[in-house]
Design brief:
By secondary structure, the protein is mainly beta. It contains no helices and 9 strands. The protein binds copper (II) ion (CU).
Length: 101
């Protein structure tokens, strides 16, 4: 699992931003090896939690993303991951699709 927050270095390879703005978690389609960077642009605390509230997958879990915080995760396997915010599990959901490999 390659996961970085705060001042940690963004790994080598492509990066794609997925800003969290107006209570929306973004959908992104990326190539394998790409790092998705989530930043809490506005609003209260968020989480970026892989899976669904009923069935979290644990593939990536970013807890307590306060306003201004930036976290990232590098996807090294193809697949599709739905994700959600634990504080707003029905309104805030998104999908990351990883192609290639
Ligand atoms: Cu939320």
């Amino acid at each position: 699992m390659k996961f970085a927050c705060g001042s940690a270095k963004i790994p080598v390879g492509g990066t794609v931003e997925a800003p969290i703005l107006n209570s929306v978690l973004q959908d992104r389609t990326i190539d394998i090896g790409t790092t998705v960077v989530w930043g809490n642009v506005s609003g209260p605390q968020r989480t970026v939690t892989a899976g669904t509230p009923v069935e979290p997958t644990g593939v990536f879990v970013i807890e307590f993303l306060s306003r201004g915080d930036i976290c990232s995760f590098t996807f090294t396997k193809p697949g599709t991951h739905v994700y959600y915010c634990r504080f707003h599990p029905t309104e805030m959901t998104g999908t990351i699709t990883i192609t290639g490999g």
